[in-house]
Amino acid sequence: MYERLVDALRELPAAGRQALRELLDAIEHPRPDQDLLALARRVQSALHSVGLRELLPRRRVVITGMGAITPLGHSPDETWDRLVKGESGIGYVTRIDVSDLPTRIAAEVKDFDPATFGIPPKEAKRMARASQYALAAASQAVEDADLNDVLAREGDRAGVVIGTGLGGFDLYENLLIKAGTTGRWRVRPFDAIGGLPNMPAFHISERFGLRSISETVVTACASGTQALGIAAEAIRHGLMDMALAGGVEGLIVRTFFVGFSMMKALSTHNDPPEKASRPFDATRDGFVIGEGAAVFVLESLEHALARGAHIYAEILGHGATSDAYHMAAPDPEGRGAILAMRRALDDAGLAPEDIQYINAHGTSTPLNDKTETYAIKQVFGEHAYKLAVNSTKSMIGHAFGGAGAIEALAVVKSIITGILHPTINYEHPDPECDLDYVPNVARKVPGGIRAALSNSFGLGGQNSVIAIGRYE
Known about the structure:
The chain is α/β, with parallel strands linked by helices. It has 3 domains: 2-55, no CATH class; 61-306, Thiolase/Chalcone synthase (Peroxisomal Thiolase, Chain A, domain 1, 3-Layer(aba) Sandwich), CATH 3.40.47.10; 316-469, Peroxisomal Thiolase, Chain A, domain 1. Helices cover 39% and strands 16% of the residues. It is built from 17 helices and 14 strands. Helix 15 links the parallel strand 9 (357-359) and strand 10 (388-390). Helix 6 (129-144) packs parallel to helix 10.
């Protein structure tokens, strides 16, 4: 270890070596005007860059603000209230023509007006739906955390990490459809860049003056969960003090419907639509396309306490892996999912028995639900049968890059309230899916929930799991 330390210090960039010298000199010969905290952060960042994480203090990361735009509502509270009631946000598609397709249902965000969230009409026209949803959710989170004045002063120590699958693909599809039907290309200024996947993060950073890390995570259905894990890790190790982090998707687009219909991945249970998404049920026949966003304010515990912030919950750990197996199908042995859950537990310093609840990926596809159940049993053993497992997707469909963040919102709300929302449409038990899926009716947990996992397993074999706990 000491040899590695010596070698790593030799590899420090010049700026890091200079910061280390300045910090040691300032400690030995203190001056009233010397900013020791800033020097320490520079040294910390330098050590982090050469892989010496174990020498760095690991700060606790807490959630102090939340925002959401979902098929069930335009706020966290409205979304949560309807989740607890077991209401479905799935209905017939209104935004595009899918009358010729076997699947004609989706979980659309309804009656969304960007102006309600301070997005001027001229700016909204330049933005894909994903950017509008993300910025609206971020605005709610900042307001909820009472952070506007803080960000104005401390923007250099605040960043943004947003997960998405395809960002503003809808903007590009609309351009192509218009060109194909009219024979003319009518491209407005900024159309070429408005749909880029990093635009949601850009609009958030621009609105709130976030000048630290700005990162876009593109790991398909795992993106939202992985964004939260990456942001928490950066705060833990002092790279920033605050972050707006979450996930978003706005892909009610024909390309998705046609493509996934050809893959036979979508539910064709069109009537009634609210019965289509049936995670873990023996009659499940595919997922339902959804959309939406959830964004959180994450802070180091020290920073949150110093400003008197209200703390909802704590990010305890994160694990990310790859199946290295198939573009679309999960590894039937669940190896990537198993490893991701175990890594999240290890990172959080938790034993399997410490977990009371798992918000499952739970897509309502035959393979995913069976594989996820198997993976949970491999990680938790007999304790798996004492866990509560539910699927938010039973009510909001699959929002791809936004799914993990919306599901993390459900976990945080469960920790706050001690209530688990139901998995609706669970009517026919599947012998291969034999855990407690909180069927059809919400449940109050005696003594509340201390620690939970949220699972996200994405196309391309991307797996991300986050551990969230009650703030003690």
